[in-house]
NAD(P)-binding protein
Amino acid sequence: MVKLANVRLSNAAFKACSDGFVAIFIGGTSGIGEATVKALAANGEKCTVYIFGRNKTAAGAIISLCQDLSPESVFIFIQKDVSLLKNVDSVCEEIQNQEQKVDLLFMSQGYLTFAGRNETVEGVDTILSLRYYSRMRFATNLLLLLSASPCARVVSVFAPGRGEVGLNLNDLGLKENYSIVKSISHPAFENTFFMESLAATNPGVSFLHVWPGLVQTQEMEKSEFPGLLKWLIKWVLFPLIKLFCVPVDETGERMLFYATSGMYPALVPAISLEDLEVASGSNGEEGSGCYCINWNGETIRNQTRLERYRKKHAIEKLSVVV
């Protein structure tokens, strides 16, 4: 486990090299994304931060607070439905026209629901788009800008290890076999496999798939669960599991650590790793460039499950889908 004290030391050291840092947060107006934006503002200066979200009012309050924490940084809110891939393409083009590089792409978009398949106008299930397709479209569209950074990192917060139940390689988009469990399991596998392919072809960029643990945020209250279930979660479940939850502020600090620490380097890092502890990648190899990380910073030991689908050419099949 990476101790919180070490996380804070690393984050404090980030300030010295944060001048000119460009970060993009998808899902940055609530929950884990919001907490990480605030952690970046508290530990960085002269940064440029793009915040994508649905709630303009919430974004205004977050930006006001962040501006107080980091007066010389620039915070830009973009209100866009990122479940639509055409919207992802258009905003990526805008960023490409504005920036010379991107240092961090942090993605935590999505919401909780027990509803069935709900397609966007593009024919993609909304939940699958938010959990996987839109994330990998952002990553692929911004690869040139990420590659221009000396220490670029892509972080996708979802469910490595925890959500991996199965992957139907003949129905990756779950058009015929949709279920709540599969809507978690498919993007859990797909995030890791697609980022492994990106790490192999973009050796100067580091890719992290992170399980945040149990984090008590307002996302449950904002979910599409029935009212009675929301009430039970808020007043019965949360009080019972509170002792086992990771505080949201701590989660933000830890996510900033995962986004900036040398512990999770690219396959071909731009800096010396001498005397640095380096994590094992999703393929079991130290410093592989793609990592499945637990909430506490440790590598998730899910190589056996991943290898089962690697042998079935999952990576090759996924690479032509996004």
Notes: The radius of gyration is 18 Å. Strands lie at 22-26, 48-53, 74-79, 104-107, 152-157, 205-210, 290-293. The mean pLDDT is 93. Residues 4-318 form a domain with the Rossmann fold fold (CATH 3.40.50.720).
